[in-house]
Specification:
mainly alpha, Serine Threonine Protein Phosphatase 5, Tetratricopeptide repeat, elongated
Length: 462
């Protein structure tokens, strides 16, 4: 074996991916068609989150030796990190076609299915892997995770205990136990499990994420929302979308009932507002409580940079909504106060495109999500500034009409009427302009809730 590859493998075992990269490039300088070197280089680049380069190296590994399963497996791992699950699934299935006895490949397939919330498929893949190797830690942990997510808590507890007994120093097993305890609403016990996992593997993103969630569940409001999110995570992505659609129709039925019964009319805005706040809270609560965690030194240390930036941006949108809302409440004139406050609330809707953007790791999908977020934010700013300027625009129109009337020295009633009619027309046009922009913003926000599903149709760079 090439000496540079041997050195790189030692460095990779120590998680020193940046140092392993130049060794692998030297190996490829000696042999540009070395499939193993391309595969290991793809892995190093993936761990450094350089996904475009990693994808290219994985494809070069496959091109160099299409019958080597490890290249297909590495491509699957990259695509999973890029949130391109169909491509990830296809790649690992090709690896399994070439080496159907490899338990680790079944573990990768199970992880991909877990990422997609396809828990039955995850359980099936994990159990197939355990048939090949009953002690495989990845398949064992994913089997426990699938059982918990499917609501089979007793079997999940037995599986988790068996893994910990067999591999007490497995960081993934402790992290998995922490998530199981979060499902059981035991955040203090979960924190202990996550701390142990991070002691064994300080770079475990799975344990870090669990630690953050356990810290946030100390807040009662977040604990209730988190329980709902855990419950909804049992369903597939499509089933979750159907759940949201069902809630929309349920809200509309309740509104129709309250309108049909005069005594219940006051409940109509309450139901609508409550529904919208619930939907917004389920999407934004995690980021907002990340913002709260940043107020403590431990929270700032625990949160990764990406989540800090996400929390700051969503917190900024919340602040803009509050600032414009206060301005609309204090300044007289213009449209109705309810209409103006709803315009300010459009900033809260920026939660949806921002979260969609942060879900994308790289490539064309991330670029599209960024452009969409910037365009929608710009439009919301235009709508709010336009709404803020309406009182002055109305004053200017009234002044113009008054000037036209005063200049009518003959006291011509038709000319005065024409000036007033022109004023009404211009005021109506002003209102229609704002309404059109407001509707565009609303539809843009609604489309953003489906952003992840729509972006999945955009192919990643190949």
């Amino acid at each position: 074996m090439n000496v540079h590859i041997q050195r790189a493998q030692l460095l990779i075992e120590q998680d020193r991916y940046a140092l392993a990269e130049p060794e692998l490039r030297l190996a490829l300088a000696d042999d540009a068609d070395n499939s193993l070197a391309h595969t290991l280089l793809a892995s190093c680049l993936r761990h450094q989150e350089r996904f475009d380069e990693a994808t290219e190296e994985a494809r070069l590994a496959i091109a160099s030796d299409p019958l080597e399963a490890s290249g297909h497996c590495e491509l699957a791992l990259i695509m999973q990190d890029r949130n391109c699950l169909p491509e990830a699934r296809a790649a690992i299935q090709e690896a399994l076609r070439l080496e159907p006895w490899e338990a680790g490949y079944f573990g990768v397939l199970a992880a991909i299915e877990a990422h997609a919330n396809q828990w039955k498929a995850c359980l099936s893949a994990a159990e197939q892997g355990l048939e090949q190797d009953p002690d495989d830690p990845t398949c064992s942990n994913l089997r426990s995770m699938a059982l918990m997510s499917m609501g089979q808590r007793e079997l999940a507890a037995e599986a988790a205990a068996a893994v910990l007994q067999r591999t007490p120093n497995d960081a993934l097993a402790h992290a998995n136990e922490g998530w199981r305890q979060l499902h059981l609403r035991e955040p203090e016990k979960a924190l202990i499990s996550f701390q142990e996992s991070l002691r064994l593997n300080p770079d475990s993103g799975y344990a870090q994420s669990g630690m953050i969630e356990a810290m946030k569940t100390r807040y009662a409001i977040y604990r209730w929302l988190f329980a709902f999110l855990l419950w909804s995570s049992r369903f597939s992505k499509n089933a979750q979308l159907l759940l949201v659609i069902g809630m929309v129709f349920g809200q509309r039925i309740l509104v129709a009932i309250t309108k049909a019964v005069p005594a219940l009319n006051p409940l109509t805005p309450v139901i609508t507002l409550g529904y919208l706040l619930f939907i917004w809270a389920t999407w934004s609560a995690s980021a907002l409580f990340d913002l709260i965690l940043m107020s403590s030194p431990f929270g700032r240390h625990a949160l990764p940079p990406k989540r800090k930036l996400q929390a700051k941006l969503i917190g900024g949108c919340l602040a803009l909504a509050a600032v414009f809302g206060m301005a609309f409440a204090l300044l007289p004139g213009g449209m109705s106060l309810t209409r103006r406050l709803m315009t300010a609330a459009l900033f809260l809707g920026m939660t949806f495109p921002l979260l969609t953007f942060f879900e994308q790791n790289s490539g064309l999908r991330r670029a599209v999500a960024l452009i969409w977020s910037l365009l929608l934010f710009s439009l919301i700013v235009v709508v709010n500034v336009g709404e803020l300027m309406i009182p002055w625009e109305l004053q200017a129109l009234e002044a113009t009409a008054q000037t036209a009337i005063h200049e009518d020295t003959a006291g011509s009633l038709p000319q005065t009427t024409a000036a007033l009619n022109k004023l009404k027309t211009e005021v109506k046009a002003l209102a229609e302009r704002q309404t059109t922009l407001w509707i565009f913003c609303l539809y843009g926000i609604a489309a953003s809730t489906w952003g992840g599903a729509m972006l999945s149709y955009i192919p990643e760079k190949r």
